[in-house]
Automatic annotation (TrEMBL):
The gene is glpK2. Residues 10-255 form the Carbohydrate kinase FGGY N-terminal domain. This is Glycerol kinase. One of its GO terms (molecular function) is glycerol kinase activity. Pathway: Polyol metabolism; glycerol degradation via glycerol kinase pathway; sn-glycerol 3-phosphate from glycerol: step 1/1. It holds the Pfam family FGGY_C. CDD domains: ASKHA_NBD_FGGY_GK. It comes from the Bacteria. Inhibited by fructose 1,6-bisphosphate (FBP).
Amino acid sequence: MTDSSEKFVAAIDQGTTSSRCIVFNQDGAIVAVDQREHRQIFPKPGWVEHDATEIWSKVQAVVAGAVAKAGLRADQLSALGITNQRETTVLWDRSTGKPVHNAVVWQDTRTSALCADLGGTDGQDRFRERTGLPLASYFSGPKAAWLLDNVPGLRVRAERGDIAFGTIDSWLIWNLTGGTDGGVHVTDVTNAGRTMLMNLDTLQWDVSILAAMNVPEAVLPEIRSSAEVYGTAVGQLAGVPVASALGDQQAAVFGQACYDTGTAKNTYGTGSFLLLNTGNRPVPSKHGLLTTVGYKIGGEAPVYCLEGSIAVTGALVQWFRDQLGIIRTADEIEPLAASVDDNGGAYVVPAFSGLYAPYWRSDARGVVTGLTRYVTKAHLARAVLEATSWQTREVVDAMYQDSGVRITTLKVDGGMTKNHLLMQHQADVLDVPVIRPRVAETTCLGAAYAAGLATGVWHDLDELKAHWQRDAEWTPRMGAQERDREYRNWRKAVERSFGWHEEGAEGA
Ligand SMILES: Nc1ncnc2c1ncn2[C@@H]1O[C@H](COP(=O)(O)OP(=O)(O)O)[C@@H](O)[C@H]1O
Ligand SMILES: O=P(O)(O)OC[C@H](O)CO
């Protein structure tokens, strides 16, 4: 039985591989969780799609599951927050509510040639000043343009106003608030900022970029803050205010209580995303980072971040497990790696979708280098884990070069942080302590916090900060000489990955 004065907030985390719903109490503690995976669709090398209809039905199922496990009725929820895999692009018909094509996922590289064309003589930097982003297949605007050009008849329907564009937050909010029967078509600044269509200063759609990418304004959602009531849910959550939306990495910043300028977190999932809070002004990057909105609470000033996006970290462990079959579960990598003292001279650069930060090289492909007869699967297991910590080190160095901020501790979260060997190596190669909080579900927690702030469950950031508690800490142990030698080797390995893929050639 629950105390009737107690307040609860639910958050939906719609991620790349699964959807989760978590119910939190007023202390920010987890009351119930439900989670379901959805299909990964790979129609061609380099293409990754999701079925947005399947995602919506999985989301409905996990909401029902979490609310039931919590022993609550929907009307006992004070608010619902949304957080989501970013950039993944859905176009749907406003009158039928059906997607016109599978969603094109953030990892999908089909727009590489389109991005190269759009860059023209300015190259990757054409829209960087206005959007904070390099032209890369990662972002949503070119994905929408590709769909408009490749789904027969779609452009005409879009220009007539019959089609809606959205990242997953928009798709979910529209469905939650009624869909074809009055659903609201909105997005928040953190998600809009990943389309490459939003101006970072005005936080509005940039009409000249829309024209350059040939994306009609009629398809776009309204851009709102990350924490405000967008609408009221219908259906199973009837009456619950839908009160926050944040991209998952920004939600983790919020859930990790990185509210002060200079604080940073790294989330280790399929990929890894390190965000540094840079305060109320966007800091441009000259070293391969993204400038992105961290969050915006209602009418308050936006908070910006520098972001180092790494496409493949946990996904490399999955590859080691599923494609090579060397381990049966992800957890087995740690004892295997711990059975040897070092990587035996081997390095793995997981440039499966090219390399993201700080290189943004779509011509890179994965390499395993340094092989000799001495190298065993245990050395490779180490090299697989070390690929994550070295990629993070490169991003941390770029953060310092761009912002002058030297990270003194790194807050971490995500599925890979249960791997002690990896977290120790991370502390070693950064030479700073790495700290994991007690509530590891920082993404959902951030969305819940934002929704709770918008509805008066919590009152200010200080209240939220007081919830944060340390669970584990790793302190650096590696000597400087070893660190520097290994870093040099890692960078040599990265150079070996460049220039492999030629656009238009066979294969991915
Ligand atoms: N013990 C482990 N050691 C290293 N990596 C792990 C371990 N357990 C899970 N992972 C990796 O963590 C990732 C899952 O983390 P999660 O935060 O759930 O990711 P996402 O939200 O991106 O789906 C997977 O890519 C998996 O390979
Ligand atoms: O769903 P995740 O955790 O893999 O995160 C994906 C990122 O938002 C992509 O930008």
